[in-house]
Amino acid sequence: MKMWSGRFREPLDPAFEDWQRSLRFDWRLLPCEVAASQAHARALKKLGVLSASECTALCRTLDEILAQFSSEANSTDPLAALDHPAAHHATAEDVHHFVELELKQRLGDTALKLHTGRSRNEQIATDLRLYVRDAIAALIHDLRAWQRALLTQAEHADDAVMPAYTHLQRAEPVLVAHWLLAYFEMLTRDISRLRDCAARADRCPLGSGAVAGATLPLDRAAMAADLGFVSPTANSMDATSDRDFLLEYLQTLGQIALHASRFAEEITLYATAEFGFLELPERFATGSSAMPQKKNPDLTELTRARAGRILAAAHNAEFVLKGLPLAYNKDLQDLQEPLFMATREAHLLLRQLAPFTQALQLRTDRMRAACEKGFLNAMAAATYLVHKGIPFRTAHEIVGHAVRQGLEAGCELGDLPLATLQALSPAFDQDFFAAVTLQATLDCHDVAGGTARHRVAQALAAARSQVDEQSNAEVSHARA
Q1: Average of per-residue pLDDT values in the chain
Q2: pTM value?
Q3: Helix or strand holding residue 278 (H, E)
Q4: To which CATH superfamily is domain 120-370 assigned?
């Protein structure tokens, strides 16, 4: 029997019925549906709609249903695998209908009381918020693991140097740790965005009814607290149709994917023979069926491709939402598949990137050699003249002429004779050569956030402190 069949005389067209069912994908919401249903049952008990024994039976049976169809010990994990329940109730329209049918089969008419004072519109809105909230917690854990891998590589790099690029042309030398910490900072922002998204999703729609609010005096604040939400939603029409939190979450996943793809692109380039800055770990690479010498960067190439899938999910959601009137519309059902796909892809991607990053073998000798040619100390040379009282634009012009002299002579700035330099400007003196060494070139960037060696040491210490504090907080939270 359908949940809405009383008004209808004609059965659904079989092909249409199968086409419009969502159980084939929304069964992933089973843990959320169980938790929300238990909260509603307890609210009904407070009103006397359910007896204490009926509430206990319903909550216990809901746990049993979840245990039967969950294949992971931690069944509240939104990324955990669940056994597909469709075969048990081939007529179930969606996860809500499936749970109702299971309860009816196990508890008889007592199960029919559970839907008193609620609508599937508020149920799905609640389930999705619970799913997104839990998925965010899992993804933050994944991002932390990648951050730790980046930080470990940065600490091991010590004072190793590499060229930084602008326009994909060698620009200035930086510490390898400085480069790795750039990605650490990107992930810090990603974690912040996920937390912001979780905060805005932290309102409970239960009690909103189909559109106008529940017809029973349910204690909405108690239901919200029961599910760990900070408060109930403020408007029933908005609550049942709002998917802003879902769109924001998908957009944030898109930014994470974008950062992962940029990292993957750099690693792919740096692993080529033309750069030779790093060696790909063999356990994360494949070979060629035709060319025996090849070691292909499949992980980073697939990262770029999978990032596209995740980015597309947010656009999919935008196209669904852009023209919908208030309040609930069946169109909203089609947001779930991109949500589940993007969450799964982001999780699997991040789980690869952490151990991959940890296993990268940096060829710091090649990186250093690339810093010692190509006039990467030109900015330091101009800064030297600025310290001698020459305006920067003039200093820039003088050093440009010096670079031309070096190109014609086939040598670097530090190899030009002092007499040649002094012919360009009398400000050049013997101390110029110490000012354009590799170490001096790094250390002239002595500002917060710069690549001067002691500044990077401070940044590493701050990043390590951040990671350690977060790890300790997570352990404390888990114990609590």
Answers
A1: 93
A2: 0.92
A3: strand 278-279
A4: Fumarase/aspartase (Central domain) (1.20.200.10)
